[in-house]
């Protein structure tokens, strides 16, 4: 079979499996998830051998150390995968839940019932643990899934795929519910993106280039996360100690992630007092500041920001800083340069706190808390499959529930339309 | 300005207007909707003149009568538009509603708040009333909208657009919240479909060709409705009188719409009694039957169905009929040939009623009621902008709420991530 036929066959098998999966009860899905966790434990050696082959050939190809690091299925990563599987097993099953029901004047009882999305396609880059993490969430939500990982992780992914298949079989679920693409050719991906009759949604996970490629070529809907240019606005009525703690946490605790702060906006009235102490706190932690003219006037050693700094996702110990005349200017700045990811206000003012929450249209808008909380675990959704920065279907962290949709159900006793 | 620049300018203006719209309270939106209803009343003459120009040039171009009919803004159609505007005005405003809120172990209070989608693009064909109906729903949900109607309705649409602009101005809303494209060139539509940074969702309304064109070319998400191949399954335990009444209503009451029944599935045990009486009832109403071999054996005058009849959307007084060995065969037939629109079971059996509702994955699955109820008004959502047969974001009738999304909000008192 050529790529085209292989991919089409996978799509058809996934669609058939999705019908079975939609009927699977939670006990069976839990069996699969807990069984997989046990198999990862008992197959540590087999996994390590497959992973070593990838690491070795990565080294031969001259992959840089951070990439080799992401590729490695260390004991720590394996333990986290097992813990994740057990946590997902315990999440409430969203499928079949009737979220609301009402009665029409003619007596027809109408409701909405949660159902799986169907077939989920996931295209991702180096980390092989995504194979298990993503499959677990898709199965819990009653979907079938087609996974296409990076070529560097080929052997690890195939090994994990075999283990997942064994767990499906042991739980009595169709093996085609989780299929990992065996080819890493680009044409196979392009073919996958054409299968709108088999794949209900595509979720790309990786760099901006991958995501733009998927969005431009997919015929089915795409749930995507471009970048996180997150802001904290320190209001004139902020508690300066709280503001300092939140800004340090949001910038420094883990600078390389999408929910780290990239731009700090400070009200002009608090700036003369607040900015020098922040500059000192950031200096001690090795954060480089890039400021607007007013920031540089207050903090003379600060480097001047260029226009592109306002939309930069540094993912590093660098921070853009701007003094704003009022909250409306802060909101306008966020609307212009932000990426709809996460924004926070620090204030003691009741009215502005609520107006900020109303008027800023990002996936998470917060009062007096660190931007670092935009994450499925932290918000209480359980594991997440990504953070959507586009508005349709899911906006923000996507957990198990976001891998489902609702259908209407109606119970009548002979109603006809007049 | 060329098309490209014109369309881009519309997109940018719509995006700015969407920011204003998201803040608009319900009183202002109601003002706009009720004001538009009043203006349609007082401007009947102006509307009739514009509409006459379209009808005349349609006649000159030799448009067939049904198309001319759809084009006409008769008094009846205008009255329905006014009534629709007043109904939408009274619907509850979804924007700002916090649908759930919970507290995390660290005290962070997290919730989901409904917000507008942003900018909605609507591409539709002949009926000019869509210009007002669709704009009303989009505005109620706090969105800006760009409308592109059919070239045959050009003057009617421009006249309605002017009235809508006057109403926006009078209510203090930005005029760019409703923009009707002035060009009807295809390149302008193609350009519109590229504006993923300005338009959040595209909703095509019309024939399958239009919808496929939009789905293939749009870079933003598309909410689409392909076709309605709706089924009624008459179970062995059906009440035959109820089954007859439901089948007649679903097929005959308005055969040219998407929620009319196109295929009847009958359990083999009830078929010998039920099919002859149904054949007679249908014959009296001028419905042509196309049956499977078993149907033709029971009803000898029935024409044999070809393979393509099982997936046909006749939109006419024609019905495909198949005898099935059991409910699972009916469900399998629906999964294979259906279009995920509307399916009903007629039965007195409790267990099968519930299993049918669980296992059939269409946008509306019913027990003992006519398929004709799949419609926003009938299900109690208020006016609808269409019926989605794809699963993401909205599945089934899309009312005001489906023109919104949710963001996460979080209220803290200094929480940092550890």
From TrEMBL, chains A, B:
Enzyme class at the top of the EC tree: oxidoreductase
Gene3D superfamilies referenced in this protein's UniProt entry, alphabetically: Aldehyde Dehydrogenase, Chain A, domain 1, Aldehyde Dehydrogenase, Chain A, domain 2
Domain Aldehyde dehydrogenase positions: 5-284
Intracellular or extracellular location(s): Cytoplasm
A GO-annotated cellular component: cytoplasm
Substrates-to-products reaction catalysed: L-glutamate 5-semialdehyde + phosphate + NADP(+) = L-glutamyl 5-phosphate + NADPH + H(+)
Basic residues bias (residue ranges): 1-12
Pfam families, sorted: Aldedh (PF00171)
Keyword tRNA-binding: no
Entry EC number(s): 1.2.1.41
Disordered: region residues: 1-25, 43-66
Molecular-function GO terms, alphabetical: glutamate-5-semialdehyde dehydrogenase activity; NADP binding
Keyword flag Translocase: no
Biased composition (Basic and acidic residues): 13-25
Pathway: Amino-acid biosynthesis; L-proline biosynthesis; L-glutamate 5-semialdehyde from L-glutamate: step 2/2
UniProt entry keywords in alphabetical sequence: Amino-acid biosynthesis, Cytoplasm, NADP, Oxidoreductase, Proline biosynthesis
InterPro entries, A to Z: Ald_DH/histidinol_DH, Ald_DH_C, Ald_DH_N, Aldehyde_DH_dom, G-glutamylP_reductase_CS, Glu-5-SA_DH, GPR_dom
UniProt family annotation: Belongs to the gamma-glutamyl phosphate reductase family.
Biological function: Catalyzes the NADPH-dependent reduction of L-glutamate 5-phosphate into L-glutamate 5-semialdehyde and phosphate. The product spontaneously undergoes cyclization to form 1-pyrroline-5-carboxylate.
Matching NCBIfam families: PRK00197.1, proA
Descriptive protein name: Gamma-glutamyl phosphate reductase
């Amino acid at each position: 079979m050529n790529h085209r036929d292989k991919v089409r066959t996978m799509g058809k098998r996934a669609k058939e499996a999705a019908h079975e999966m939609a009927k699977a009860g939670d006990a069976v899905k839990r069996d699969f998830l807990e069984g997989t966790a046990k198999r990862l434990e008992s197959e540590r050696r087999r996994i390590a051998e497959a992973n070593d082959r990838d690491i070795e050939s990565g080294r031969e190809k001259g992959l840089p150390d951070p990439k080799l690091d992401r590729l490695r299925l260390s004991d720590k990563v394996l333990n986290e995968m097992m813990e994740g599987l057990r946590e997902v097993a315990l999440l409430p099953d969203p499928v079949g839940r009737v979220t609301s029901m009402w009665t029409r004047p003619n007596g027809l009882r109408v409701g909405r019932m949660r159902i799986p999305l169907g077939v989920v396609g996931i295209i991702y880059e180096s980390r092989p643990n995504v194979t298990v993490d993503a499959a677990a969430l898709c199965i819990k939500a009653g979907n079938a899934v087609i996974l296409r990982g990076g070529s560097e992780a080929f052997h690890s992914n195939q090994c994990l795929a075999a283990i997942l298949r064994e767990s499906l079989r042991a739980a009595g679920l169709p093996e085609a519910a989780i299929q990992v693409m065996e080819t890493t050719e680009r044409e196979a991906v392009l073919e996958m993106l054409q299968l709108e009759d088999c794949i209900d949604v595509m979720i790309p996970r990786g760099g901006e280039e991958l995501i733009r490629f998927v969005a431009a070529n997919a015929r089915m809907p795409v749930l995507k996360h471009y970048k996180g240019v997150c802001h904290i606005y320190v209001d004139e009525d902020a508690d300066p100690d709280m503001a300092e703690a939140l800004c340090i946490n949001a910038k420094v605790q883990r600078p390389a992630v999408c929910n780290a702060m990239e731009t700090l906006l400070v009200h002009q009235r608090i700036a003369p007092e607040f900015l020098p102490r922040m500059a000192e706190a950031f200096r001690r932690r090795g954060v480089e500041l890039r400021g607007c003219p007013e920031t540089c006037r207050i903090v003379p050693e600060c480097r001047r920001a260029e226009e592109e700094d306002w939309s930069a996702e540094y993912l590093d110990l660098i921070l853009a800083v701007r003094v704003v005349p009022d909250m409306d200017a802060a909101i306008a700045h966020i609307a212009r340069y932000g990426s709809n990811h996460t924004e926070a206000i620090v204030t003691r003012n009741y009215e502005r706190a609520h107006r900020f929450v109303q008027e800023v249209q990002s996936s998470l808008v917060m009062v007096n808390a660190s931007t670092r909380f935009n994450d499925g675990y932290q918000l209480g959704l359980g594991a997440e499959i990504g953070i959507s920065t586009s508005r349709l279907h899911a906006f923000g962290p996507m957990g198990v529930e976001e891998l489902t949709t609702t259908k209407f159900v109606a119970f009548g006793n002979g109603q006809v339309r007049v």
